[in-house]
Amino acid sequence: MVEKLIKTFYETFGDGGDIRTYFAPGRVNLIGEHTDYNGGHVFPCALTLGTYGIVRDREDRTLRFYSVNIDSVGVVETSLDDIVPTKEAAWTNYPKGVVWAFKKRGFKLTHGLDILIYGDIPNGSGLSSSASLEVLTGVILKDTFGFDVSMVDIALIGQDAENNFNGCNCGIMDQFASAMGKKDNAIFLDTNTLQFTYAPVKLPDAKIVITNSKVKHSLVNSAYNDRRNECETALKELQTAVDIQTLGDLTEEQFEEHKSVIEDEIRRKRAKHAVYENQRAIHAVEALKANDIALFGKLMNASHESLRYDYEVSCEEIDVLVDLAQAMPGVIGSRITGGGFGGCTVSIVENETVDTFVKEIGKAYLEKVGHEAEFYVVDIGDGAGKLD
Ligand code: GLA
């Protein structure tokens, strides 16, 4: 596949010169949803699906981008000295944002680049195609210019680009998972301190199955930023009663004791989700470590219920998928994953049930919703880097 991309690179940008190849994965979050901007814990893992970049140095100060996936946009050019978000720049606002964030930190990009991109994560599916593109760009710039930044810095730079160049007020989870992923492990990350541990995901009898509802979500236009604001207001209200920095500081009991200071019922539900989901993520990791996969699955199901009714980031099509999955014998747990409002579910499915899962849920979904779902039986891969 990489060879084919290199051929397309030469056809697009012309022959010659040394080229380098990079990869940054997408991610799936197993549990701990909408907790990363609330000082809570998340438990994502990097996928083997992701975004590839083929790169060649230029002598001038031009950046040229081409995406094999979005061929219709063609080659997009920009000058290193004119990095501002524009509508015409389309998808290239993501890599441009990362260039902007490096420049903002005082890093000097001394020459331009030709960059070809190809991704095998479906766009807008909630599997972090944009975060992987940001982290990919970070890795390309670090390697090309020898910048002294860690992979955690690259994640933070990617988040800065997403927040302040592309207008989505996301947390750190996606970029962190793409930068710091480890094969066969999920990352238990405290988003308040950025301390993390890797937890092996050993599932000899089961598979991780992602189901794409094919309902596209756009975090920028969705209620994602509203949820964040609602939680911030709820936190301020709680701070009048209890000494906390984030919603992640509260146990369920403390929340129940103080929740009445949150004046609005909707905000109370949002904060409840953030507090309980953080605790669920902590318990789920303990369950996984104790090899209690059944408990892990129950916590996934409870996570979905909370995202559906309290946080209200699910949608009809996703609920159809989750209801079908949770009702099927051999399914250990199933929930929406990622930002929400469409996108994908993640399910833990016993090995011998996987075929039935894909067939039956695929059929029932088509009947109920009127379009097909897509299924990916995934492996957990490593974080971003240069390919040999
Ligand atoms: C999106 C954001 C993340 C996180 C999730 C919800 O993927 O980019 O930072 O908030 O939604 O858990």
Key traits:
alpha+beta, 11 helices, six-stranded mixed sheet, 13 strands, four-stranded antiparallel sheet, Ribosomal Protein S5, domain 2, 388 residues, Alpha-Beta Plaits, globular, binds alpha-D-galactopyranose
Report on the structure:
The chain has 388 residues and is of the alpha+beta class. It is built from 11 helices and 13 strands. The chain has helices at 2-13, 93-104, 129-145, 151-164, 173-180, 224-239, 252-258, 265-289, 293-309, 316-326, 354-369, and strands at 19-29, 41-42, 44-57, 62-67, 76-79, 113-119, 185-190, 196-200, 206-212, 331-337, 344-350, 374-378, 385-387. Bound molecules: alpha-D-galactopyranose. The site of alpha-D-galactopyranose has 11 residues, from helix 5.
Chart the SSEs and their pairings.
Layout (H helix, E strand, L loop, with lengths): L1 H12 L5 E11 L11 E2 L1 E14 L4 E6 L8 E4 L13 H12 L8 E7 L9 H17 L5 H14 L8 H8 L4 E6 L5 E5 L5 E7 L11 H16 L12 H7 L6 H25 L3 H17 L6 H11 L4 E7 L6 E7 L3 H16 L4 E5 L6 E3 L1
Parallel strand pairs: 4-6
Antiparallel strand pairs: 1-3, 1-13, 2-7, 3-6, 4-5, 7-8, 9-11, 9-12, 10-11
Helix pairs in contact: 2-3, 2-4, 3-4, 3-5, 4-5, 6-8, 8-9, 10-11
The protein binds alpha-D-galactopyranose (GLA).
Alpha-D-galactopyranose binds next to helix 5.
